Every structure is written in structure tokens, then in C-alpha cells.
Amino acid sequence: MKNEESLAYFLNESKTIKIDELGKKIRIAILGSFTINGVEETLRVKCSQNNIDCRSFVGEYNQYNQEILRENSELYKFNPELTFLILDVRHILGELFFYPYSLNDLEKKEFSENKIQEIMNLLKTIRKNSKSQVILTELQVPTYSPYGINEQKEEFGIKQMVIEINKKIKHEIKNDNFISILEFNEFVQKYGEQNIFNYKEYFSGDMKISIEYIPKFCNELMRFVIAYTGITKKCIVLDLDNTLWGGVIGEDGFDNIQLGENPVGRSFVEFQKRLLALNQRGIILAINSKNNFDDAMEVIRKHPNMVLREDNFSCVRINWQDKVSNLYEISKELNIGLDSLVFFDDDPVNREFVKHELKQVLVVDLPTDSSQYCNILTNMKNFELLKITDEDIKRKEMYLEQRKRIEFKNEVSNLDEFLKQMDIKIKIKKADNFVIPRISQLTLKTNQFNLTTKRYQHEEISSFSNDKNKIVEGIEVSDKFGNNGITGVYIIEKTDSEWIIDTFLLSCRVMGRGVEDIMLGQIIERAKQENVKKIKGKFIPTAKNKPAENFYKEFNFRKEGDFWVFNTEQETKKVEHIKVIENE
Hints:
single chain; alpha/beta; Rossmann fold; Aminopeptidase; nine-stranded mixed beta sheet; five-stranded parallel beta sheet; 19 strands; globular
């Protein structure tokens, strides 16, 4: 293991973290049924590497029951946003782990049901006493049975018992948006039980994950941290030559590039299949290649072994510009930040140039051996989401439609005429079980047109939606080219005399079409109907929300202290080219 991946490295680095320089903030609690020394330090360092300020609480050794069940425990005083409950199979099964056949099948089933109820009670208690998202590690299925090869013939052997416990807990929490499962058995399969479980460390300190593999285990925890904090990457930008196929199209020609016909060619096909799977899940793909456009596009359109086709790429830059300039243009065309991009390029010179010039872009260090590309991609944790929404799945189609909008805009003589011909419609969607996850996701991810940049988790949005003194709604935008999905959000605090805009945001991909004006106009009209005289809102500047800076001013709000204020007796902006469909 490299030095920078060792536990000693993370323990040393944890002492040098400069908290004030970090962006996102999160409070993480770590509870375990065994010794978890090093997890907290490693997690804080990995968070800082992702520009996250992690404040942590670690429960005392095997005191997770007490911390969870006592209402005034240190756990609840800490008020975590994310709680990892790390349980191990030896602890949960006790002596039954060694002597599973000391009970008959009926007794083992009763034992399993009791353990399921105990664990579910812990999860429900955390949910009751805190607003924390809870991540439970599943129990490791034992690889050894004293029955040996006859284990499979048992009606309810030890392996089946643990599988059943895991299965029923997953079923119980399936529809709970605030509890997730860490697939610990996948972690064991990936690295091997004999590597992860070290008997010497277990006997000396009740460690169930060896010191050497603590950093790798923390990588699994980080998948949830990244998803929770909303720093998920949105777009993979790909070079072509020796990245999506072997060889150089301009030199080797269409018939001689390596793609599918030999071991090297098959590695590129496999890599493309993995990329396509992510694309179908909602990760955007783009091309950034120094190449002759027609030669490269011929491969994409016509090569029989090409998996990714033209429609899979939401943005294409095949030219002789430098890679940095192209990345700027890709970011601008897709209306996403540079920090949403992941760059794959086989050329180390290009990679170093991008790293130096665009520190926001995640640059993947590809080896010369293309057989490793798939392994690198599948081990990346940067694309995780706590919940995949319909908008995520449809994102590829939405960006293809966006390309058509741009082409259409270039054909039309002026902006007003373009907007009139777009046939834009918006639906105002009340927060419900279908809309709440998307509203939360937008508050976590939207930066550019976001007046206050307040971040809200699913549970907070759900709570707001049940508050009669709040309005929580999402805005679905469609036009002649397709449906953009829910791309706008507002949250209003209501009093008898005035309304305060807590949150007002719009996805960058629909900015500049008048949607934001319609949203604010709708709020004002509803306030008038309820005889509310004033609407107030703040603009809280960040490094990224400059596009929203003058929004209130341009809508004739006036500045009063920290607030922008609108008198509802004033006239509002009229937007004629958008049709509004309310309260669906």
C-alpha cells in the first residue's frame, strides 16, 4: 500500500487540517460495536481533500446502544447530520457465531427476528431523537461454517441466517429516505476477508477491520458523505485517441484503431460500456479532443464496435484548441460549474495542464495500460447520490434537447423571437413524496442562480412542506424540445403582514428565459390574494451566485437593511411568452 494510503499518513494529516479554509460543513457521528480507531481521523482528512469541513463524534468502545437509547446522550448533544452505525456479525450473533447448531431451526429463526427488531429499534430511535441521516453497515455473511460443505443443505444454517437478517432489514428501510445501507459484503468481496480481518489485531484490540484497510473502508463511508453534501460530479469529459479507443485516428485510420478485436481493443469496449451505464443513470458525457472533426465523428457514428454514439454526448469539442479552452466552453454550454467536471485523458501533459489551470476540475490520472481504465472508473465515488430522481435518469435526454435549443437559438434572429417560438410552459408542483427529493437535491447542488444558497436535506424539506406557515414548491419547465423537469424551487415563510423568501433558486440550464421572473411574479400575485403587503428576501453573495446578484433590484425591490423589499401594490414584471399551469 502506498504511503499516502496508509493509516499512519491519515493520522498525521489529520493534525494539520486548516478548517477555516474549507467550504462545505458536516457533522458526522461514528458508532461501532468494535474498535474503530483511525476511522474518524481518516474520514476528516478525506473530507478535507474534498473541501469539506468535517466535525466528528466517536462513540465510546461498544457503547452504541447507550448512545442511541439515552435521549440526553452525547450523540444527540452533538446533533449529527450523518451517523454511521458500524456493527459486526460476531458481536450481533454472540456465541451463536461459533455454535450455530446449538439451536434448532425454529430457535434460530426466533433469534434472527429478535436481532432484526433490536437493530430496527436502534434505527428508529436515532430517527426519533435526531434529524441525522443514518448509514448502517450490513452484517458480514460468514465464509466459514462448522458444517463445512453440508452448510448448503441446512434449512437455516448460519450463512442463511445472516443473509435473512440483512434481507429483512433492507426490506424494512426500503422506503425510508433517511436510512441507507453500506454494503459491507461487497467491501469484503473486493479486498478479501483474509486481508480485512486480521486475527492478531482482533485478539489484541477487538479490531474487526485491519489497520491496513481502514483507509479503504473510509472510502466506502465517503461515498455517503459526497452524496449527502451534494458535491457529486455531473459530467465526464473524455478525450478520444487512446482514451475511448486505442491508437490515433488521424494516423492509424478508421480500420486500424483498436476497438474490440483484441485484448487492448476489448478493454476500450468495456470502458465504454461502463461509461454508458453511468450515462443512462444520468451522468453527462462530453468530448474534448484534439482531432480532425470528421475523422473522429466517423468512428463515433459508424465503427461497429463503438458502444457510445453521438447521442450519448451532450457536448462535443473536437478541434485543435487546447484542452483548457475546450473545458471552459463545455462548462459554459452545459451551464454547469467547472467543479462538476471529471476529465479523462491519456496524455499526461494535457492532464497536468488542466490540473494547473483549472483546479476545480477533477483530473483522473490514467495509466498507460488501458485494461485499468474500467477499474479506475468503477472505483470512483464521485458520482454518488442518496436518491436517484427521475430528473437524474432523464438528464441525458434533457441535455440533448438543450443542444437542439442552442441550435434553434442560433437560427432565430433575436432573443425575443426565440423565446416566443419556444412554447415555454411551467407547472407549479407542490412538495409531495415525489417532488421533495428533487427539491432537496436542487438546494444542495444549485449555485449560480441561488439567492440564499441554503442547503436542505430531504427531512427538512419534508418538515417545511407540512408547516402551514410555509410554501414549498418546485417548478417544472418544458418547451417545444422537451421537458427540463423540476428546475426551480422557492420556499416562503408566511406571516399575516409579510412573506419572507427563504429560498429562491433556478437550475442554470433554464436561466435567462424568463422563468425566474414568472416564479417571483407568482409569489407576489399569491401574496396579493392573501392581502399580504410586503415580500422580503435576502441576497447572500457567494463565490458562485453572481448571476443572481441584481435579480431583486431588476424586479423593483428596494433595499432596506439586509433585506430587499417589495410592496405588493406595485406592478410586477409581465412575461408574455410563458404559460403557467398551477398546483399540479
